[in-house]
Amino acid sequence: MDEVSQVVKEHTFGTWRVQRTWNPMNVEKAEGVYFYANGKKILDFSSQLVNVNLGYGNREVIRSIKEQLDRLQYISPAFATEVRARAAKALLEVMPKNLTKFFFSTSGTEANESAIKIARFYKFPAYKIVSRYRSYHGSTLGSLALTGDYRRWFAEPNVGPGVVKIPEPYCYRCPFGLKYPECNLACVNYVDYVIKNEGNVAAVIVEPITGTNGVVVPPKEYMPALRKITKENGVLLIADEVMTGWGRVGEWFAVNLWGVEPDILTTAKGASASYVPSGITAVSKEIGEFFEDRVFAHGHTFEAHPVSLAAIPAVVEEYKRMNLLAHVKAVGSYLGERLKELKEKHRSIGDVRGVGLFWAIEFVKDSRKTPFGTYEDKYAGRATEVDVLASKLLNEGLYVFNGPSWFVIAPPLIISKEEIDEGVEKLDKAISYLDEKFTG
Ligand code: PLP
Hints:
The protein has helices at residues 3-11, 47-50, 59-71, 82-94, 108-123, 141-146, 186-198, 222-232, 285-290, 306-321, 324-345, 375-380, 385-395, 417-430, 432-435, and strands at residues 27-31, 34-37, 40-44, 99-105, 128-132, 163-166, 201-206, 236-240, 264-267, 279-284, 349-355, 358-363, 398-399, 401-402, 406-409. By secondary structure, it is an alpha/beta fold. α7 packs parallel to α8 and α11 (324-345) packs parallel to α14 (417-430). The longest helix has 22 residues, at 324-345. The protein binds pyridoxal-5'-phosphate (PLP). Pyridoxal-5'-phosphate binds at residues 49, 107-109, 112, 136-138, 207, 211-212, 240, 242-243, 268. Pyridoxal-5'-phosphate (PLP) binds next to α5.
């Protein structure tokens, strides 16, 4: 380990992991869809944490940030700035049309914290938030209470009152043991039952397509039905588009896939291409107006930070200049086809699913769909065989972001077909490691 990696390991924390086995590579530089670490050229097949949507080194975004730094570095959120107006206008252009007011923060978890507070103010005295088990909404205590996966377990019992969990539309392992379409969408109909029987529900929050927890794409009826159910019950619908937003699925936001307008949309990651930290909570006109004569009891020192806002209009312009949504649709279906070819070849691949440039490969170790690892393994800090495979791939020049038994394949949106082929070939060679462990 070089000195950089050593100091980083000794004096800073590796997140969501046991520290002893953390051996961070020293990343020297990055360009396009590649980063360079420990002298190796590595193809980024997951946009880091599904966030470096424009890849590395986009000159226009960098220029916009630098210009803002030269002009105005910081000012209290109580003031108006030209960059704040430009960011708001850029968002009005790309957000679902009903969302017209924005709160700016610096991360996805803060965007969700704001959404919880706004929903509770707006729906007072209703306070409960319904969220799904197979979900991740952030690491701070409120967002972690919404989170369904094992990361919530570390923070209990100090979080959670007022959060009600529901199963997810995970057809590959249906929590209800049913089959689509004969199931008649039991998973979404159950939400109606929960809202009516819980009482005091203020909002339902979902990732329109579950991200870190395995890119779970719902059946086409799910989101429109959820919108209808929440409306009929007078409950807000919050779409967490921290991962699915910003062209990841070939639309500005995933809700557009089904023509659904949420009451609140939270986003971060791709909003600034991740060149600077940025989080956004977007609310409907009605919710915005609600606070006209009521206190908006929320804020941060770094709210509407001029430098982080400078990235947003530049990102929107870059998407338009490169016609990126159309590109994602085209190369996304190519990536999907190539991954499905892998499924035909490798017995350890149980499922391949996704849309746009947002895919999962789910691995199984037998024909009964036994996973190679579970949330319990993650909670205990145990590396799974899929973790081992991801480390092997990194050494072979391919970075993939993985869960206990799946890979999230979500390269920067600027990726070409040739670069997709390079990544798929590396996957093809490496997956035989898991095939050998398949027990039939
Ligand atoms: N929501 C979703 C859907 C996410 O995927 C994430 C992060 O991966 C978050 C919220 C939290 O975002 P952040 O890590 O910026 O706090």
